Amino acid sequence: MDKMNRNLDIIKSYFREVLDYLPSNADGLKTYLLVDDGHFVLLNHGHHNGKWYHAVLVHVELKNNGEVWLLKDNTDLDVGNEIIKRGLNQEELILGWLDEKTREAMKLMGYTA
User: Fold this and answer.
1) How would DSSP label each residue in 20-49?
2) What's the whole-model pTM score?
C-alpha cells in the first residue's frame, strides 16, 4: 500500500473512532465530520446554555505527497500523537499552525510532533 492510501486509512479510522467517542448531540451541540478533497474537519455547533456555538475542533489535511498536516486541534484528544500511534510516520505529520522557521527550529532542538 502506498503512503497516501496508508495515511488516508489511518485518518479515516481515527475519525471514525472519535465520532463513536464524542456524543453527537450533547447539551444541544451537534458534532460533524466534513470530508472533502483531502480535508477532514471535525466541527460542532448548536445552542448551549443560551449561547450559539459554531467551532472547528480539528482540521487535518492529507497532501498529495502523503504528508498529514494538522492545521487545527482545539481538543484535548492529542490528535497528532493519536494518529502516530495508529501507524503514521512521525516525519509525515506537519504541525500546520506553526510557521516553517519554528518547525525547523523544533526539529533542530529534537522536538517532534
Assistant:
1) HHS-TEETTEEEEEEEETTEEEEEEEEEET
2) 0.85
Question: Which residues make Cβ contacts (< 8 Å) with residue 87, sequence separation at least 6?
Answer: 6, 10
Determine the Cα–Cα distance for residues 44 and 32; give it in Å rounded to an integer.
Answer: 6
Going from the first residue of the chain to its last (113 residues), give the mean pLDDT of each consecutive group of 10, the final group possibly shorter.
Answer: 90 92 76 93 91 95 94 92 93 83 74 62
User: How many Cα atoms are found within 13 Å in the side-chain-facing hemisphere of 22?
Assistant: 22
Q: Which residue, 3, 36, 37, 40, is CA-closest to 18?
A: 40
Q: Which pLDDT value is given to residue 15? A: 93
Amino acid, single-letter form, for residue 59: H
Alpha helices in 32-99 (DSSP H): 79-85
Q: Which three cell numbers stand for residue 5?
A: 492510501
